[in-house]
Amino acid sequence: MTSLKRSLESDPDSANFSSKVYVRSTKSGKVQKIVREVYLRQDIPCSSKLCMKCRNTAPANAVGVVNPFVLSDKPAGTKEYPQGHYLVPDTNALLNAMDLFEQSTAFYDVIILQTVLEELRNRSLPLYNRLIGLTKSEDKRFYVFFNEFRLETYVAREQGESINDRNDRAVRRAVQWYNSHLAQTKGNKLPTVVMLTDDRGNIEKAQAENTPATRLRDYVSGLENGERLLDMIAESQEKGISRDKKAADFLYPEHFSLSKMMTGVKNGMLHQGIFNVSPYNYLEGSIKVPAFPKALLVLGRDNINRAVDGDVVVVEVLPKDQWKEPSTKIIEEEAVTKNENADGDEGGDLVTEKERRALQEEVKKTHSTSTEGRAQPTAKVVGVIKRNWRQYVGHVDQSSVSQSAKQGRKQESVFLIPMDKKIPKIRIRTRQAGELLGKRILVTIDSWDRDSRHPTGHFVRSLGELETKAAETEALLLEYDVQYRPFPKTVLDCLPKEGHNWTVPASTDDPGWRGREDLRPLLICSIDPVGCQDIDDALHARPLPNGNYEVGVHIADVSHFVKPSNAMDHEASIRGTTVYLVDKRIDMLPMLLGTDLCSLKPYVERYAFSTLWEINPSADIVNVRFTKSVIKSREAFSYEQAQLRIDDASQQDELTQGMRTLLMLSKKLKQKRMDAGALSLSSPEVKVQMESETSDPIDVKTKELLDTNSLVEEFMLLANISVADKIYQSFPQTAILRRHGAPPKTNFDELSNQLKIKRGLELRVDSSRALADSLDACTDPKEPFFNTLIRIMATRCMMSAEYFCAGTQAYPEFRHYGLASEIYTHFTSPIRRYADLVAHRQLAAAIDYEPMHPAVRSRGKLEAVCKNINVRHRNAQLAGRASIAYYVGQALKGRVADEEGFVMKIFSNGFVVLVPRFGIESVIRLRDLAEPEPESVFDAENYVLKTSGSRDLSVELFQKVIVRISDAKDEATGKRGAKMELVKVIN
Amino acid sequence: MPLDTSTYNLALLRVDGRRWNELRDQRGQMGVQPSADGSAYLQMGNTKIQAIVAGPNERDASKTNSSASTAATAGGLGATVAVGITVAPFATVDRKRRGRNDKRLQEMQTTLAAALAAAVQGQAYGPRSTIHVSLHVLSQDGSLLAALVNAASLALVDAGVPMTDYLVACTAGSTSSYAAADEAADPLLDLNTQEEQELPFLTLATLGASDKVVAMVCESRVQLARLEGMMATAADGCKGVRDFLDRVVREKGEIMVQEGAVGRGEVVSSMDLD
């Protein structure tokens, strides 16, 4: 009988095999033992340009290309390592100070070990991704050395050795190998390979073994501008040393364990959702959970329990006797916690005296109100599933900086006040507090421990002086996560080689003409805002012999230039949309395409994607077809020019006639849409006028709407709807569509109640039609703006529209509530929106112009794209608005104006006024009314706030007021903005 | 948790430290079950197979094409090859029992039976004879179908069933997933479980060192442009496997000669033992 068992030792190759055994537990709690083979080899290069030996054995890929060697032959040195050095960071160094490694002033020639990479991936996926990004950047010279696969550097775990110790040993072994390996090369200036770590034990062991090693902190302080860099090392590691100093008193309740939360959520005792902070009250949050129609309130620091706006948290509903009304008070963190000491001991009460008083008043009020039904369920946060921390922009709270810090280099804790009022103050430790004062700075949150009232974070970089255009614009872009870096070379390489000289090929036999229709003879024109460079769309109309009209919408054929899954497409899908700021445009696609090759400029031939309808005189569609085409726009009008030309009766040329036809049809289309129940919503829109030379804002104007605006809009809607139909027919699973959910009725509760009480008007919200009609009825004969005000407020109750993949929703859910259309997509602006580009590709496949690319066909991928562009779209809007707000503030600089405003929200200690002239809204607090703060009585049921004492006033909702607007710097956010003072109330 | 297949491009190393065109460690042995007509044990990485051949026997009409095994006729009117696969409950990470009616196993049985039938010279036996091949999966770590083919081949040689050449199989994959549409993707040879889960792959079976493809199975979506490279890689891998099987057979032969099971003179004429 032969035995199957054969000892590995007898095999000559046995040294080359190893296996990795590890244990992992699955989500369901099962424990799995995983065995992986490991093949050890000797042909993994060191990747140093100094080494000739490795060059000979360097591996090639399947086509015979060898990865270039990364590490420089003349690396930078320091005092300690004058010959130059390669750095080998351990996992903790990367975990604590990834920002440092991304610096452009230092940290070049870094060897990332596989051991470290694996550990990092387990600890933090985002950091891992950043590191992978670094290894791909050519100029940073990061090399990943697969030490676990190299025979000489592989380390087997010893009996009783912890996995961390084993990994540390693997790192040291790799450093030793590197040093001895480089020593074999000829040359007298050999760089040292240095281990960077913060683990004291590891350093000691390295010294014992004579392995070059240094503490991260020591290394950084040895660098030029080291002090600036020192701040970027995360807070946590310092703590590691001082942790055992004293057992801190815990301020916050402990978070539940993940499994406890999961079980709770599963059996319905706990609820999971995204935590949102009220913009008016930092101590009030709300969380929308699937189990309840209305959002749950989370009140007070205790209950919020370290959740930050945007985190995914788990909450527990509080007993009914603790249910409360949403706050009717404006509470700003600044005002309440102004005097907190950043360095001070944290042992005190969690809820400060002032905060307690603020809450107390709340409770009193709840008990006094007669209407029981208005109390809302409240909840407390019991744990955080996923932190949604990003980098935050803000400025250092002047009061938290000690006097000595302004000169000295002493490290101290200061508070950073984020621009976003929903984010709590962040405590950072810095040595350069004095320099940071008055600057916009970027920080990240590292942790929020139970024993600390505020989250702790660290400084990332400074954007510049407060209120300078550059710093504020960059701050805005960072705050809304807009990708504003210039396009990398890989993206620019995807552009056509001819550059600006690219033209539509003259010969129609050219492959570019394949499947294209020649629409050059058509009289096509474009209508856009003044100065528009990225012209997405152009139109034409002409009468047909049978009395109907042919109408064409021609959209820039961006998909011809941006091929799926190349670097440019990837970049565009990340950017998602072009962001328009007042003085700047952050493009989704490189300039060459956006403003030239794709842009449907007049007098030149361009590729287009055309939608052609036959429409009868009563604006019903007889038929529709889609085709790729070549067009030549005859003229690029601005809205005003187009309007003038249409109105000018002396113009009788065919182009103008076509435009008149379009206008006539668009009015009928609009009427049809309105009849179907489309909403006409409103938001306060203003335009900032700039001085052409200095681009300083000089005036603010409300936007004017002309007939031609709606002409273009109607046909774009029509094109979008037609395309949506077509791509949904062809690709019922993967078509990219846009939906606008019907808002839950409860969203309108407050507004309809306010309207009923204040004006006796009824708001019906059963359908979009009913809402549209009742909004039309909301008028005040004396006050024309009242209707717009209600529309603005109603708009805020709506859900936001979103992109989605057809397969993820049932057909009835496709409905676009606002436009009252059954199906909708975005097709008409591919230069500035990625969704349109995807729709173009799908439409091209639907008309058999080209095969469907897998990236546009995979539903999983499309869902990820939708998710991203939804976020980007929203951020772009917010960034645009914030930019306008900033410039309005700048335009008002040094001016004082009395303007009409309307009260749109009322609190027990203040009210919010909207000034339509500037499109700004601002809070006026009681304490701003007079000194000392007047006594007040707040009638919550009738929305009336009466003051007496130092100033007698009665302010009610929807009331017209005159306010004095001046510019002032908001101390809380460091933003310059309009400050309002109440002049008088108009009855 | 180690890295995943996306790190290949960093240093052209796969998750287990191999290059793109390297086979895993292979071990094989013949005659591991002396009571059977033919048997073999084969290991490709951590995929471990035991194969037992019984027959040729007279066909039992009631048993062919039951769910326990699937049969295919070799060489026109010749013998039938019946294949049965069992997977031990401990073969995978999660201990689980796989029934006889497992559809994937049945599909593999059909593929195997057809492939083996193409290699066996069935006309040497009567049309009423059946060769039973039972395959036992002891441990599973990717390239299962390929390992089954190779183990069956080895066991058939041990049983002395005439074949035109070794039937060998190997898997090949591509370093980038279908949707990634990365043009510079490398083909990969002999995938393990992790790679099979993350990347597109195919199994190719050829007749010996020739490029005659006997079976090809591809269940994942892969760009057409990459298919050729993958097939060429797999065919190269098959050559490597054939050399390996040949070595195992020759070693066994040498031992048999040493032990005197076969007379030296008889052997040299038919088997070149240099």
TrEMBL record, chain A:
Family: Belongs to the RNR ribonuclease family.
GO cellular component: a single term: cytoplasmic exosome (RNase complex)
Cofactor(s) required for function per UniProt: Mg(2+)
Keywords assigned: Cytoplasm, Endonuclease, Exonuclease, Exosome, Hydrolase, Nuclease, Nucleus, RNA-binding, rRNA processing
Compartments reported by the entry: Cytoplasm; Nucleus, Nucleolus
Organism: Apiospora kogelbergensis
UniProt xrefs under CDD domains: PIN_Rrp44-like
GO molecular function annotations of the record: 3'-5'-RNA exonuclease activity; endonuclease activity; RNA binding
Domain PIN per the UniProt entry, residue ranges: 85-204
Highest taxon in the source lineage: Eukaryota
Pfam families: OB_Dis3 (PF17849), PIN_4 (PF13638), RNB (PF00773), Rrp44_CSD1 (PF17216), Rrp44_S1 (PF17215)
GO biological process, one term: nuclear mRNA surveillance of mRNA 3'-end processing
UniProt keyword Nucleus present: yes
Domain (RNB): residue spans on this chain: 516-849
Entry protein name: Chromosome disjunction protein 3
UniProtKB/TrEMBL annotation, chain B:
Residue span(s) of domain Exoribonuclease phosphorolytic: 22-162, 169-236
GO cellular component: cytoplasmic exosome (RNase complex); nuclear exosome (RNase complex); nucleolus
Domain of life according to the entry: Eukaryota
Any Pfam family: RNase_PH
Name assigned to this protein: Ribosomal RNA-processing protein 41
Family: Belongs to the RNase PH family.
Principal subcellular localisation of the protein: cytoplasm
Listed GO MF terms: RNA binding
Localisation: Cytoplasm; Nucleus, Nucleolus
Swiss-Prot/TrEMBL keywords: Cytoplasm, Exosome
Gene Ontology terms: biological process: nuclear mRNA surveillance; poly(A)-dependent snoRNA 3'-end processing; rRNA catabolic process; U4 snRNA 3'-end processing
Recorded coiled-coil stretches: none
Assembly and binders: Component of the RNA exosome complex. Specifically part of the catalytically inactive RNA exosome core complex (Exo-9) which may associate with the catalytic subunits RRP6 and DIS3 in cytoplasmic- and nuclear-specific RNA exosome complex forms. Exo-9 is formed by a hexameric base ring of RNase PH domain-containing subunits and a cap ring consisting of CSL4, RRP4 and RRP40.
